[in-house]
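Retry 2 of 3 after timeout on previous attempt. Resubmitting structure tokens to design endpoint.
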């Protein structure tokens, strides 16, 4: 009897110790990860690195709120993704994409999925930036498909999402989770004539082919 009771007591004591050790481990993890967090400069740098595309830039990054967890640190963010040189570069930016689209007839809306456009996005843009640039191009393509006399060129789009930070070998590893693009695009101050935009894209494509033949 005594041995049985003693054995049960020892077993319960071992379970308690295991449980306390687990609690202590969790508390230590919280102290090491949840209570620590990336600094503002580090946060902005990592967001900036996640959204890279030729001719584009991240601007006005804001950390909206944050929540430290046991093994990670989660932060909501918002920023504006824009053409780096603004209005003056917008026309050249879209002419390049339209040139790659090689649109035949009036099938403008399908141009965003053109092989050369998709290859360009894969080569020049990070995974996070690709759908944002696609969205901006689709807006231009829709206007062209509607045969509007002038086309408003998107120069920026608001983006919001959340990021998960986890301690890594070189500081903080980050996983971006973009939730949505803002519905209100920012357009260039002066719209461009449809014919001018299309003509430039066609001429640029022809020029590129001539160079290729040489």
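Retry 2 succeeded. Sequence:
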């Amino acid at each position: 009897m005594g041995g049985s009771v003693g054995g049960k007591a020892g077993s319960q004591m071992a379970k308690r110790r295991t449980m306390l050790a687990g609690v202590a481990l969790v508390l230590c993890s919280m102290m090491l990860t949840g209570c620590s967090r990336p600094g503002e400069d580090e946060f902005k740098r990592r967001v900036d690195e996640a959204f890279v595309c030729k001719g584009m830039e991240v601007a006005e990054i804001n950390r909206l709120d944050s929540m430290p967890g046991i093994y990670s640190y989660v932060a909501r963010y918002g920023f504006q993704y824009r053409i780096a040189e603004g209005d003056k570069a917008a026309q050249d930016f879209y002419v390049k994409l339209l040139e790659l689209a090689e649109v035949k007839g009036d099938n403008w809306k399908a141009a965003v999925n053109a092989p050369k456009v998709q290859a360009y996005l894969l080569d020049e843009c990070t995974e996070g930036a690709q759908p944002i640039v696609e969205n901006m191009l689709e807006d231009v393509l829709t206007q062209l498909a509607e045969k509007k006399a002038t086309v408003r060129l998107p120069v920026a789009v608001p983006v919001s999402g959340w990021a998960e930070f986890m301690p890594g070998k070189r500081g903080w590893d980050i996983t971006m989770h973009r939730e949505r693009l803002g519905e209100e695009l920012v357009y260039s101050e002066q719209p461009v004539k449809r014919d001018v935009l299309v003509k430039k894209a066609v001429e640029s494509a022809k020029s590129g082919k001539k160079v290729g033949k040489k």
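Attempt log closed. The longest strand covers residues 154-168.
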